[in-house]
Design a protein that fits this description.
Layout: H1 16-25, H2 29-42, E1 46-48, E2 80-81, H3 101-109, H4 116-127, H5 139-150, H6 156-166, H7 179-187, H8 194-205, H9 207-211, H10 215-222, H11 226-236, E3 262-267, E4 270-274, E5 283-285, H12 287-296, H13 302-342, H14 344-349, H15 360-367, H16 371-378, E6 382-385, E7 388-391, E8 399-401, E9 407-409, H17 410-423, H18 432-441, H19 448-457
């Protein structure tokens, strides 16, 4: 038997303003500047407000769209918006991109006496190096790719010759095919003292034993003393395993300056939060478009009506955009202030042990915003404090209980674990079980598997790999 009935469902449809606000909240300051510039280019109704001494006399007219006789009038709003100040761009501690690693190698290549063909082969090899400065491709695939992508015919002998040329460039070690070759390329440039010669032999003949820390085996096979081995290892550990990092592409192809979205200062024992406002233009409505609308308000001419409809649409867009910027500012400021209040003790001195467990829900409850909104605020945002620049994500972490039943952050646990490892006897490093006992002694209840997980996250090797002479 079929039954018919009505079912009432309530669905929420986001307004254009809400959609605009959500999109703007996700943007860090630098991208917000770009977004506003783009809106200025695309919406002829908007223009940048550059105040002058007679600004009051020439202030844009406040247009009420209700004056425009239309079947669907919209509420009035001001066309001039002082949403942000005109502060000059201050100097912040930012990350910036230095000289390109690839460009540096190409510059050095230009000083070599090579044929045009050899130069092309060497240039292709340079373009095939990874961010660390290594050539991690096999010769056959490199030669095939060179022919297919660049139309350069070559062979293994020529590629080897050009690679050896590149391996003479700065920084030392560049163009290596593995770590062993990278270190050998560097150590050959050092003064050939007995310690350097021993280090070279270790890298050349006993590299696996060295990386596995089988030191007694190396001493026996090389016929040297423990003191000699220590001196040789001291030379090796000073070498650079990633030469590509010396001349920096900083963040590779995504490299860009990171400008803090917030600035926190400590003044007379009080924390003060500000938001940089440089380069973000004030917005106002272009006067001539407002005049077009007003002129067409009582007109019956078709063309003027169409022009007025166009301007009305653009005015709507301008209204939503400007209001969304205001809401973004208020949302970011409220969220960051809530984080500072929650982590007050930490922000006073930057001591990680004062960083409390905190999840998105904690800040959502304090601000009244949705968790999704807090997530958007936190994503890709940075704050400059009196002890460094940090991603907002840094301040969020889960928690665990200590021996007293108090909740502590996982970051505090990791710091304690790192301190245990730093303080251990490197001749007899602590095993994971011993680290559990040491953490328990410090008042932290942590399982062995948790120790192993945190150790991996901190890039701390197993006990055997931490052993030193």
């Amino acid at each position: 038997m079929l039954k018919q009935g009505l079912e009432l469902k309530q669905t929420q449809k986001l307004s254009p303003l809400q959609i605009q606000t959500i999109k703007l909240i996700e943007l860090p300051t630098q991208e917000l500047e770009q977004r506003i510039r783009k809106e200025l280019e695309e919406n002829p109704v908007l223009e940048e407000n550059v105040p002058s001494e007679d600004d009051e006399d020439n202030a844009p007219r406040e247009v009420s769209l209700s004056e425009y006789k239309d079947d669907d009038p919209i509420p009035s709003y001001k066309l001039k918006v002082n949403n942000y100040g005109k502060d000059e761009r201050p100097v912040y501690n930012t990350f910036s991109v230095k000289e390109s690693f690839t460009q540096s190698l190409m510059d050095q290549l230009g000083f070599r006496n090579l044929t045009e063909h050899q130069h092309a082969v060497a240039a292709f090899i340079i373009g095939s190096l990874d961010d660390d400065g290594y050539l991690r491709r096999d010769m056959d695939s490199l030669i095939d790719d060179m022919a297919f992508r660049a139309g350069i015919e070559s062979d293994e002998k020529e590629v080897e010759e050009m690679l050896h040329v590149i391996q003479e460039f700065d920084p030392p070690g560049v163009g290596a095919r593995d770590l062993r070759e990278c270190l050998l390329l560097q150590i050959r440039n050092l003064k050939q003292t007995p310690d350097v010669k021993n280090a070279t032999r270790i890298l050349r003949d006993f590299f696996n034993d060295f990386t596995s820390k089988h030191f007694n085996r190396i001493i026996t096979r090389m016929g040297i003393s423990e003191t000699d081995l220590k001196a040789a290892i001291a030379k090796i550990v000073k070498l650079n395993p990633a030469p590509g990092g010396q001349i920096d592409d900083s963040y590779s192809e995504q490299a860009q300056q990171i400008i803090p979205d917030f600035v926190l200062t400590l003044e007379n024992g009080e924390l003060k939060l500000t938001m940089p406002r440089f380069s973000i233009p004030e917005l106002k409505v272009n006067r001539k478009y407002a005049d077009i609308l007003m002129d067409a308000a009582n007109s019956s001419e078709r063309e003027k009506k169409e022009a007025a409809a166009f301007v009305k649409k653009k005015l709507d867009s301008a209204k939503w955009f400007v209001e969304a910027i205001k809401q973004r500012h208020n949302t970011l400021q409220s969220t960051m202030q809530a984080i500072i209040d929650y982590q007050h003790d930490y922000f006073m001195d930057g001591d990680e042990s004062h960083l409390k467990p905190m999840v998105l829900k904690d800040i959502a409850e304090r601000t009244g915003f949705d968790i999704s909104t807090i997530s958007r605020v936190v994503n890709s945002k940075y704050i400059e404090t009196h002890f460094g620049i940090y991603s907002l994500k840094y301040f969020f972490s889960e928690g665990m209980e200590n021996a007293e039943g108090e909740e502590v952050s996982t970051r505090e646990l990791k710091k304690a674990l790192q301190e245990c490892v730093d303080a251990e006897d490197k001749r007899n490093p602590l095993t994971d079980d011993q680290l559990v006992a040491e953490m328990t002694r410090r008042g932290y209840k942590v399982a062995r598997r948790t120790i192993a997980k945190y150790r991996d996250q901190l890039n701390i090797p197993k006990a055997r790999m931490r052993k030193e002479l």
